[in-house]
Specification:
Length: about 375
């Protein structure tokens, strides 16, 4: 199948004492030399800086900042041992930079006491090297959390909920923060309340597998308020979307919810529009305000879609402008301009069609007419 083409639709200071006399104040060059050379060689004599730059090949600026934050460690070789160990189990330099940025002090932790036991626990449960590195780089606080007080009890609770190691692995991969909370005080009472409302365990599993597990660890009073608010906003407990409404509101809080609704109002949506969108697609409220504004402006700006189109298909607010909307709108604009099609597709078709589907309907039949539309190539399955 042919490739689907797409568009990237980025001193000296002096003082006049008089008209006849000019006083120059000159700072001796020697005073600048220490500062000058320190910028060329940041953290000279700093063992941590040397380890980061010369042994592990991190950028100089990053290494200088980390070394200064760690100060004078009594045993800088710990940094080397920690990094060497983490690399040996699959961490890449970008992943290491991510978690070091979050808390540089982790590099000074005892490898034997603080880190190796946690890694061993994950390995015994069946986590692969990539699972472990992705999980910790996404949630570095795992390395700072107590193995006995948080991680092992959390794994036990999740294993009981999910029923198998495979399901447990999926849940933790998607929501690593689950390992850093006291699940007996958050997750367990929240799930019990949901069950009491009539939400099935199977529905909970679907949500966990979809990567929304973190929202279950809200404080119980926040979670209960979110359940009541979701009912108030018109989603029935029996609906498949109910649990997503609860999780969305629980993660936002009441103030965040009101701010998001006000942003929708400012864009011209009525309260009934907002409720309608929430009932159809609760996660629409989780879209950032900036993104929903830009998507709305782009779609309405075409003159082919309006606010009611978005209300009818709120999922449209989730898709990427650069990767999905701009290339497709450019192609459609050319086709309409050349009289090759009369009507634009519905908003649902525009945003939900796969690349393959869009190519077969709007690109393949008109390739000769789109030769002047420069868009990057994306492979389309035959």
């Amino acid at each position: 199948m042919s490739a689907f083409i797409r568009k990237n639709l980025t001193f000296f200071t002096f003082h006049h004492a008089s008209h006849k006399k000019l006083n120059l104040r000159i700072t001796p060059v020697s005073l600048f030399l220490p500062q000058f050379f320190s910028t060329l060689n940041p953290n000279p004599n700093n063992a941590v800086y040397d380890i980061l730059v010369h042994k592990h090949h991190f950028p100089c600026e990053f290494s200088s900042r980390v070394a200064s934050q760690l100060g004078d460690l009594k045993n800088p070789e710990r940094v080397n041992s920690m990094l060497s160990f983490l690399k040996s189990i699959g961490f890449s330099n970008p992943q290491l930079q991510k978690f070091i940025n979050w808390r540089p002090i982790l590099l000074s932790y005892s490898l034997e006491r603080n880190v190796e036991p946690k890694i061993k626990a994950f390995q015994e449960l069946g986590f692969s090297p990539s699972d472990i590195s992705n999980m910790i780089s996404a949630c570095p606080i795992i390395l700072a959390s107590s193995l006995n007080n948080f991680i092992i009890p959390s794994l036990s609770v999740l294993k009981s909920l999910m029923g198998s190691n495979a399901a447990l692995l999926r849940a933790v991969r998607r929501s690593p923060r689950l390992l850093t909370s006291n699940l007996k005080k958050t997750l367990e009472p929240n799930l019990e309340f949901l069950k009491g409302c009539g939400v099935s365990v199977d529905r909970v599993h679907v949500v966990f597998n979809g990567g929304h597990g973190n929202a279950f660890i809200s404080k119980p009073e926040v979670f209960i308020a979110a359940v009541e608010k979701t009912k108030e906003m018109g989603i029935a407990v029996s609906s498949k979307t109910f649990i997503y409404g609860v999780l969305t509101i629980a993660s936002m809080g009441s103030k965040g919810l009101e701010r998001k609704m006000e942003a929708f109002r400012e864009m011209g949506f009525s309260d009934s529009d907002i409720l309608c969108m929430f009932q159809r697609e609760p996660l629409v409220l989780a879209v950032s305000t900036d993104k929903m504004r830009k998507v709305t402006e782009l779609l309405v700006g075409t003159g082919k879609y309006d606010a009611s189109s978005i209300v009818g298909h709120p999922l449209a607010l989730h898709y990427s402008i650069g990767k999905r909307y701009e290339p497709r709108l450019r192609v459609l604009g050319v086709l309409v301009g050349k009289g090759l099609i009369e009507d634009w597709p519905s908003l649902r078709t525009l945003c939900k069609s796969t690349d393959d589907q869009f190519f077969k309907r709007f690109v393949g039949p008109y390739l000769d007419h789109l030769s002047d539309v420069s868009i990057p190539k994306v492979e389309v399955k035959a």
